[in-house]
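Quick board copy: two proteins, each given as sequence then tokens.
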Amino acid sequence: MSWLLNLYETYESNLDRVGEIEKTYNDREFTLLPVSHTTQNAHIQVEITEDGEFHSAFVIDKSDASTLIPCTEKSASRAGAVISPYPLHDKLSYVAGDFKAYGGKVKDEEPFAVYIQELKNWAESPSADSKVQSIYRYLSKGQLIQDLVGHKILCVDENNMLLTKWDKKYESLYPQKPEIFGVLAGEQDSAFVRFNVYSPRSILTDVWKDPAMYESFIRYYRGRLGDEDICYVTGKMLPSTDKHANKIRNAADKAKLISANDTSGFTFRGRFNQSRDAASISYEVSQKAHNALKWLVNRQGKFVEQRVFLVWGNDALDIPDPAEDTFSIDPDRIVAATIKSNTNQAFAGEVAKALDGYKNQITSDPGKFSKSDVNIMILDSATTGRMAVLYYRNMNKELYLDRLVKWHSTCVWLHLYRKNEHGEFVRFYGAPATKDIAFAAYGPRASDKIVKGLMERMLPCIIDGSPIPRDIVNSAFHRASNPVSMEKWEWEKTLSIACALINKKEELQLALDTETNNRDYLFGRLLAVADVLERQALGKEETRSSNAIRYMNSFSKHPARTWMTIQSSLQPYQTKMGTKATYLSKIIDEVASRFQMEDFNNKPLSGKYLLGFYSQRHELYQKKNKNEDTQDVTHDEER
């Protein structure tokens, strides 16, 4: 129950944002829903006067369709042929008293009769708002479809029956295709109608955005809740519920996190008599927890296929995401730290400073529920009706941020694939994002299933310090050792990410280690010098890969034998460059002299050779006027 409790506390900490309209990156609106409310995509808007008369109507544009509506326990989870109306806005079959007269299919019980009785109860209650009363007075006349047909919102045939679908044979009645068929996926009788109140004397707040309307229904419905029971989340005696919210990921999402409707099967047999024996949750806690979750998913959840990765704080919502790379924490500081930090320890200090801003958000307000916690949650559904919490972790915020500092200062290497706000490539030293790790290990065509599985597997490595799974490191290593299988930019990105994963265990510096005699590292250095020498001889105009790069895959498996081939291929380039090749040739001799006789063999290389390759190449590219023989070797050549 801890995840429910933390979501409930998050809702309580953000009561001032209830009903406040926010937008996603693609301009889709969302809000922290009030209790007893949900969202629905509406197709038709009907304006009612304060006196309860029809004023106007129009078809709603898809960009404005999302509507916040009141709901009951039963209507929020209705499905199939169950008649359970929403209290105010609903489908045409519920809100139109003349639905049957226009060809609507109605079974034994007429939905409108149930709907209008519920609306009457609300409109006549002490909690009723004047807008509810105006809408009720109009709908009780039972002429909604008549008015919508009269204003050419809905379409009928020669027999005055609603058209089931648009067909060109109706062009004699309607010269242009009616708007309603542009927003409906089904028949006209499935249209969802929302109501608003119009006043010629003043500008009124839209019904679905009016806090007074929210409070009106909440007060009314609170008095109609069921019996009290102990709430397993708060430990208090409160009205309980066994119907919990859906639409967690989006308005069309039917999957529920809590559901127990199989009373005739084996769900309770031998264990419980009824579902509440397993877990009793109060209506208020369920509503607030689920509404907080929906809000957080829309606000900051990351989707891979339909799997949601979510990180939030009880008091400060915006928490660094463990799935992101170091650059995303504080781009300006990380780029500056990359330039001035010479060791992993120094860089760790810079990362810690970048995260200090989040530490300072820890509240000291005793009125807050928060314990300065961070919550990490992964959600996914195997079927359309059931959703599961695949991973949940609640941690102290300071401990969480300390773990992030450790990750971002140990799984590190120099990366060149990120862009700044101006669209320019920048170099940053740090840890890669988990999604980038997935593509480095399995290629850019990796399926969403593989990507989301890897992202989930990487979480314990980041949060708990567990070793990176060996198969992930090996996959990235083998792809980085096969540069001819991908474009240059993709290989450079794969190479730096593979180096970061390998360095998590090796704990080496980016700076070239000229004192080590490790055979794998030395072989990597040899390969890098051969690559730079040939690239310099070819010049900037030649874009083909060097022999060192083309033979890299074979080199990683049979280094001694392949090096003989690479070295012999260097001779024409050394001859072409003349004395300019002297400096690089001396490095080859110096590196080769460090090998022990028994180490210069064909035993396959470990990932450490990639670190030697990258560091040696990086060192050569950074030389500036140190030796006239290398003055043409620049960072531009590296890119």
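And the next:
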Amino acid sequence: MRIGLITEGGYPYVSGDAGLWCDRLVHGLEQHEFDLYALSRGRHQEDEGWVPLPPQVGRVRTAPLWTAEDDGVTYGRRARRRFTECYGELVGAVCAGAAPAVDGASGQGARGGVGAGGGAEDLADRFGSALYGLADLAREKGGLVGALRSDAAVRTLERACRAPGALRTAREARVPDLLTVTAHLERALRPLSLDWYGDDGLGAADLCHATAGGSAALPGLLSRHFGGVPLLVTEYGVPLRSHYLALGPDAAAPAVRALLGAFHGRLAAEVYRCAEILTPGNAHARRWQERCGADRARIRTVYPGMDATRFAEVGESADRADPDTLVWVGRVEPAKDLISLLHAFAEVRKEEPKACLRIVGAPVGPEGAAYLGHCRALAAQLFPDEAEGVHAVGDNPVSFEEIGGPEAPTLADAYAAGAVVVLSSVVEGFPISLVEAMLCGRATVSTDVGAVVEVIGGTGLVVPPRNPRALAEACVALLHDPERRERLGAAARARALELFTVEQNITAFNGIYLQIVSHCPVRRVVLDEAGGPRPFAAPAESHVPGRWTGPTARVLPRTAPGWATTAPVRATPLAAAEGA
């Protein structure tokens, strides 16, 4: 079958958030054909280029989410009225109520909030109808960038905020707030103006697989709207949660936070309503989806797949570990709470004077660099250099290292150095470093955040976050008991090999692909020589070695939009050039 894989800020770019698991998925499913539709996040990402692509990638089409020039489209009087009506309905649904909530008894989506447009279901219908109305207008007239940035869009939003029944916080919006929200909505709705939805794009796919929710799933929604292509949405993070965290009290005014929170809540609910299947990466993401109206019957948890081979040697030789060493591995940033870890290690040293702590990781951005400097200063204060005599130079029991250095040339070497791996985060989604430690057969001590308990499954010790004393007691307990460490490490490795490998991930998605296409085949107008319908864009016979001489297909003509002028890019030649 042909899969339209939609990514945002990830695959096939070299520096992509979700690039690794997408790359493994595409390489692992060589029996299918993939077309990539990539939304980039910045010029730097585009300049770095793509990773080498396998032959089963037929073509790649890209579009920037970080910038958009005015398309120069001038609407006539009727088109302007049509835009105002559709955009007014969309922002009216946003201003009239908050994001959907979940019915705790049934688990089904109970649309939240009642506003100017009527009941909760009416608001959801208004939002969806307006969204597809704007998409229809963009397809017919050539784009929405100029219209979404226009004064008419600002005035339409202002009327919605002042309408009877609007959110109290929305009614308090001032002109700067309206301009901020209008600019954000223009960026979020840019996929509506893309030329990806015809027979030469996503309309030719048997299945659309969006690798994130939110704006990244909009192309999948539109391919479903225009061509009836079924949609699969994978969320290893939760975009709605990220928006809530990003729009904190210090980041935006109350009216801006309320309006953008309501918009992203409505968009998430529409994505979850239209997707044939949702695949969260853990139970934490699953609960967010259910609260936004997702039907439990259409949710399948698929854990991220990780390459176990690079940790095999360490996992099978536990004797490499230093019995007195604790190891922390990850990105250095405030959410990892290394401050609590250092205070906990000070308590550990009281019980185990020979204990050492190795912190292995690089800072993330300027904030991470400043945080690393603060951690170094705290370590120097808590653990002055210890020396045997007044003329000797002592060593600090805490070391700060990066992967690739002489002490930790590879990631596996970093985990191999210690008897216990520690995770001290206060915020965590799916803990990749914890799974890596499990694949290395290491006993772990973790804070109870995100999907940690779900991942560890009883094969490690879990303590409350921001509790240095509890963290220290758990570490000391494992340092004092080598047999327990060995039992927990072996159990952790067995669990990781069963649940979190690349093979498990690929097998799960292949089954889901087949399930969706078997229940929701695309009813495109493609006929074989006998005049019968052909269900798949790429028939199975096309993958048989040699030349297939079966009956040829004829595609009934379908009018393409005049503004869809961007031609698809063949991926294989460019991949070869990148590899060279």
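Board note added afterward: Confidence is low (pLDDT under 50) at residues 99-117, 387-394, 546-567, 569-580.
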